[in-house]
Design brief:
Number of domains: 1
CATH topology: Alpha-Beta Plaits
Radius of gyration: 13 Å
Low-confidence stretches: none
Distance between the termini: 14 Å
Largest sheet: 4 strands, antiparallel
Order of helices and strands: EHEEHE
Structural class: alpha+beta
CATH architecture: 2-Layer Sandwich
Number of strands: 4
Shape: globular
Helix content: 25-40%
Strand order of the largest sheet: 2-3-1-4
């Protein structure tokens, strides 16, 4: 699994967050996506390494500013370290 963090500028409300989440879902196959206007970022969890260019394009098309994108391997945390 991979965790991708995208800096997103211009989100002002919950609907903005929803628009970005929908755009990401339409661009790549996600396990989870969560946008935060307060943090100015979107966090995406995927099974495989995502297409960051597709993510950048999808978010840009919604009218928001896309900044740095950081992608790293991700291991789901579980209670007591068990899966």
């Amino acid at each position: 699994m991979y965790k991708t963090t995208v800096k997103v500028g211009g989100m002002m409300c919950g609907m903005c967050e929803a628009h970005v989440n929908d755009a990401v879902r339409s661009a790549v196959n996600v396990k989870k996506v969560d946008s935060s206007r307060k943090r100015g970022e979107t966090v995406i969890i995927t099974d495989g390494e995502p297409d960051v260019d597709a993510i950048r394009t999808a978010i840009s098309k919604t009218g928001y500013d896309v900044g740095d994108i950081d992608c790293e391997p991700y291991e789901k945390r579980t209670l007591f370290g068990r899966r």
